[in-house]
């Protein structure tokens, strides 16, 4: 497919806007999550593990957008914080929340969901639905 200069410029402007939105959202999320001494990556692990009760490290890695080396460091840190526990059954490593991890999950997840939702207060419900559909259309089959 060939693109005109206007198409290329529009595509570039969309990319810049999405990049800025993402960067700003991550910065603000990290700031919000500091109340619980969590990073956005740690929060993501907390949500994924807490939503599955018990998950393999491989399944978790597939759900997160981090490398295997990064996930190992991330999980080690969360284990030190006594938020998760790892168990090995033969060749499979399983991860689950500890009691303190479950308590933190129950406290932080609803508040972070509300915080994230507030990031889109400038849009109507219909605009939010439309944006979601447009983003899905722009990136089909990319881990919805």
Automatic annotation (TrEMBL):
Listed Gene3D superfamilies: Winged helix-like DNA-binding domain superfamily/Winged helix DNA-binding domain
Lineage: superkingdom: Bacteria
PROSITE patterns linked: HTH_MARR_2
Span of domain HTH marR-type: 7-140
Keywords, ordered alphabetically: DNA-binding, Transcription, Transcription regulation
Transmembrane intervals: none
Keyword Transcription regulation: yes
InterPro entries: HTH_MarR-typ, WH-like_DNA-bd_sf, WH_DNA-bd_sf
Protein's UniProt keywords contain Ubl conjugation: no
Gene Ontology MF term list: DNA binding; DNA-binding transcription factor activity
Protein name: MarR family transcriptional regulator
